[in-house]
Specification:
The chain is an alpha/beta fold. Helix content is 40%, strand content 6%. The record marks 318, 371, 394 as: Electron transfer via tryptophanyl radical.
């Protein structure tokens, strides 16, 4: 029909109809053609793991039913090229516009930018919206225009900004844009292989993917569990946290809705002078802030996908030992709390945030394994695998962030076990070979008398491994690695000063990615794009304006003194609070599944490579460019 607005709504990780800005805008303008495009080739090394694909498949099935009931069925397309598929949809329905909601990970940013450019070249207007964050990454900078590199400063700035209330109600009816396109069913997308179905069937006993299930999960948490959150979140095992992270990752739940629901409860608790409720609400709002911050870092510092935010960590001598990596993955390190966590992850695709911190810290601090190996394994195995949150979590644990763990911090798994699993219930659940160990020995069986081990049926080195590395040896290795890092850094700086060129390698990779300065390009004159449209970082030469970085002072460890734990916290926010907010929220669910993993070839150990560029942080952020105008092709992103 002449003059009719026909809009392609491209769904990605925004699988809901409530508070979906792209869908709402399309519904207001005229007829809509909802489409989900699955392009495995473009996922690359971050192809979703088995449990993550199971969730995606079930979420898409529910979204399809909802959109069909509203009058506009969801089309599924499996393709080798997303742009080609979108262009075919445009031609099939005579679309006048394409809309979608923003994604912020580096892979999606590059893809979305290229697609917008190509559609603009063929005169197809594109609009994108914020459906995933409270604040866009390009809206939050300090007084000098710099991107924040510490969470406290970032979140304080966010809380000083105005926030729009949730106003996007689900559409009552959708007018479907007519047209014929070669589509498939959700089964034919191939998200779930035949060999995986038997294992995946068990996931449904504990989880209900989909946007309507997400609403129920949010209501249950707000009404039943939020008040006790500040106490229960520290208990490993059991439903001790919100269980909302997979719903948030797939966009089945609006983050603005979650924030406002918790904020309303906070106001109520303050009015009632309910100290516990107030503390719990504040902690959960801060957890939401960490999710925001993960996307903020990925947008403003896209190199964090591969490189540490702190420059000196590129000199760290990681130990890419495949045997140790395998023992860590399989839960055979000899440290019960670590092994229990890794076996739960292997079996269920799920981990409590506290256990995520413990196992990842053991990976990088005890075994000195490259943090990117651990991040990729989490991506492949977690039900709520979220690239931005995983990047933030692993960089935080490995000392790669200015406000993360001190690089020399070495936490004792024995003390962690006594603190978070004092009765050993969690360990017994996932390590049946230790089920009969007394609680006072279960977190350090290597110290137990022989009679105790014999009574419990434990034979160290046979049915349960001896510690893969002694704590004293791990402390010594970490100290040595830190001094080696300092020496390499000093040599590199000296060589740069006197004109010599001493090559220093990052031994965790066999290729080098330069760390660019990330700024936002100046808006092109005459652009008519909306102020809400997607913006994109461009890479510019670095100026000598380094991130203030922390240096480790001395190696310390938690002493095994019952009832007395040292305070590892630096001045500022509680590290315990930050650690428990790794992926917005997570906890434990009973399932039994299996998974597999292989290290990407490009991430295998190698001592080849070039010295990284002396680049350390984002230059002042200039006036931003809006990625796509309604009738104007955006400027090309720099290399």
């Amino acid at each position: 029909m002449d003059g009719e607005t026909r809009t392609i709504v491209w769904f990605r990780r925004d699988l809901r109809i409530e508070d979906n800005p792209a869908l709402a805008a399309a519904a207001r303008d005229g007829s809509v053609f909802p489409v989900y495009i699955w392009c495995p080739k473009e996922e690359g090394q971050f192809f979703p793991g088995r449990v993550s694909r199971w969730w995606l498949k079930n979420s898409l099935a529910q979204l399809e039913k909802s959109l069909t009931s509203l009058g506009a069925p969801l089309a599924f397309i499996k393709t080798q090229d997303t742009f080609t598929a979108l262009l075919e949809c445009v031609k099939a329905v005579g679309a006048t516009k394409v809309v979608f909601n923003h994604l912020y990970d580096p892979v999606s940013l590059v893809r979305d930018h290229e697609i917008k450019q190509k559609l603009a070249e063929v005169a197809i207007p594109v609009r994108s919206y914020n459906g995933d964050l409270l604040y866009e990454p390009w809206e939050v900078y300090d007084e000098k225009g710099h991107a924040f590199t510490t969470f406290d400063a970032y979140w304080q700035k966010c809380m000083s900004l105005p926030m729009e209330p949730v106003a996007q109600f689900p559409p009552w009816h959708l007018v479907s844009a007519t047209g014929t396109i070669q589509s498939c069913s959700v089964e034919e997308l191939g998200l779930e292989h035949e060999s995986e179905k038997s294992s995946n069937a068990l996931l449904g006993r504990g989880w209900s993917p989909g946007w309507s299930s997400a609403d129920k999960a949010l209501s249950d948490f707000i009404e039943l569990h939020l008040h006790e959150y500040s106490k229960s979140r520290l208990k490993v095992g059991g439903n001790s946290t919100s269980l909302l992270s997979p719903y948030l990752h797939f966009g089945e739940l609006s983050i603005r809705k979650v924030f406002q629901c918790v904020q309303l409860k906070h106001i109520l608790y303050v009015k009632e002078e309910n100290i516990l409720g107030k503390e719990s609400a504040n902690l959960y709002l801060k957890a939401i802030g960490f999710r925001e911050y993960s996307r903020y870092l990925c947008f403003n510092f896209p190199f964090t996908l591969e490189q540490p935010l702190l420059r000196n960590l590129k000199f760290f001598p990681w130990n890419p030992n495949m045997d140790r990596f395998k023992a860590w993955r399989q839960g055979r390190t000899g440290y019960p709390l670590v092994d229990a966590g890794m076996r739960e992850l292997w079996a269920t695709g799920w981990l409590h945030n506290r256990i995520r911190v413990i196992v990842s810290s053991f990976c990088v601090k005890y075994l000195l394994l490259p943090w990117r190996w651990g991040m990729k394994y989490f991506w492949d195995t977690l039900l709520d695998a979220d690239l931005e949150s995983d990047i933030l979590g692993w960089q935080y644990i490995s000392g790669s962030l200015p406000d993360g763990h001190e690089l020399d911090r070495l936490d004792n798994p024995e003390i962690q076990g006594a603190k978070y699993d004092p009765e050993g219930e969690y360990v017994r659940q996932w390590l049946p070979e230790l089920a009969r160990m007394p609680s006072n020995w279960i977190h350090h069986p290597w110290n137990a008398p022989l009679t105790v081990l014999q009574s419990a049926g434990v034979e160290l080195g046979l049915n349960y491994p001896k510690p893969i590395i002694e704590i004293d040896e791990a402390r010594e290795s970490l100290t040595k690695a830190i001094f080696t890092m300092w020496e390499r850094e000093s040599s590199a700086r000296a060589g740069s000063t006197n004109g010599t060129s001493e090559e220093v390698h990052d031994n965790s990779e066999n290729f080098e990615l330069p760390i660019p300065t990330v700024i936002l390009s100046v808006k092109a004159a005459g652009s008519t794009a909306s102020s809400r449209d997607q913006r994109v970082p461009s890479f510019q030469p670095v100026k000598n304006n380094p991130i203030s970085r922390k240096r480790s002072k001395n190696i310390y460890d938690e002493e095994a003194i019952p009832g007395k734990l040292p305070n590892h916290n630096k001045a500022g926010p509680s590290k315990e609070d930050e650690e428990d907010s790794w992926t917005a929220e997570s906890s434990y669910k009973k399932q039994a599944t299996s998974s597999s993993f292989s290290v990407p070839h490009s991430w295998m150990s190698s001592s080849t490579g070039n010295l990284l560029q002396d680049c350390e942080h984002s230059d002042p952020v200039q006036a931003s460019e809006e990625l796509n105008a309604t009738d104007q092709c955006p400027s090309k992103m720099g290399e």
